[in-house]
Amino acid sequence: MILIIDYGMSNLGSIRRALEECGADVIVSDNPDDLKNAERIVLPGVGSFADGMASLKNHGWIEAIKGEVLDNEIPILGICLGMQLLATRGFENGETDGLGLIQGEVVRMHAKDANERIPHVGWNEIHKVKENPLLESINDGSDFYFVHSYHFMPGNIEDVLTTTPYCGGFVSSVQRNNISGVQFHPEKSIPVGFQLLKNFLYNI
């Protein structure tokens, strides 16, 4: 059973439909107690880092997530803002502590030439830093759909799975043990995005 965390920061319909099309039994929940029954966890999100962490805290998710992910080693996939919230801290709308599941910071992107726009919106390629089960059957250079103005800077290079050539290059996916995050939207990135979701469901 795959649980999608509903903390009021995302349109959950598209990610739910994508996971169901990939064969998952999906529940969308706003109750942290439901995490106890989850075999996989998806943390989506759209909006600012500070608002996301405030919403997780106000809805009682933070300790519940840490308990299942760290103590019980339940796999989690953070998507877009959800990936950023895995970090140690973020600097959007002030400095805010993150979940601290993967060491790193979330900082604003800066254009390196006149053709680059912030926010970064649209299709862009990912380049593998290393092979990983989350990326199985996905070719290097595959295009995914992005919408973001901030990016994750991991504290440990070993946690980096892919990078994307925009604004001087940024980390577009990370993984540490059972904790994975992608800056792009796999649910909007058919067909390679669905392959990534299947990899999370069956390979991680």
Quote the distance from N terminus to C terminus: 14 Å
CATH architecture: 3-Layer(aba) Sandwich
Q: What fraction of residues sit in β-strands?
A: 25-35%
CATH homologous superfamily placement: Class I glutamine amidotransferase (GATase) domain
Shape: globular
DSSP summary, beta strand count:
14
* Main sheet summary: 8 strands, mixed
Summing up helix and strand content along with how strands pair, one would put the structural category as alpha/beta
Question: Which CATH class applies here?
Answer: Alpha Beta
Q: Describe the strand arrangement of the main beta sheet, using strand numbers.
A: 2-1-3-4-14-13-12-9
**Unreliable parts:** none
Please give the share of residues in helix. 10-25%
Radius of gyration: 15 Å
Instruction: Give the helix tally.
Output: 5
pLDDT averaged over residues: 97
Give an overview of the whole structure.
- The chain has helices at residues 13-21, 49-58, 62-71, 81-84, 192-202, and strands at residues 2-5, 26-29, 40-43, 76-79, 89-90, 96-97, 104-108, 120-125, 127-128, 143-148, 150-154, 160-164, 170-176, 179-182.
- The chain is an alpha/beta fold.
- The chain has one domain: Rossmann fold, CATH 3.40.50.880.
- An 8-stranded mixed sheet has the order 2-1-3-4-14-13-12-9. Strands 6-5-7-11 form a 4-stranded mixed sheet, with helices on one face. A two-stranded antiparallel sheet has the order 8-10.
- The chain is globular, with a radius of gyration of 15 Å.
- The two termini are 14 Å apart.
- The mean pLDDT is 97.
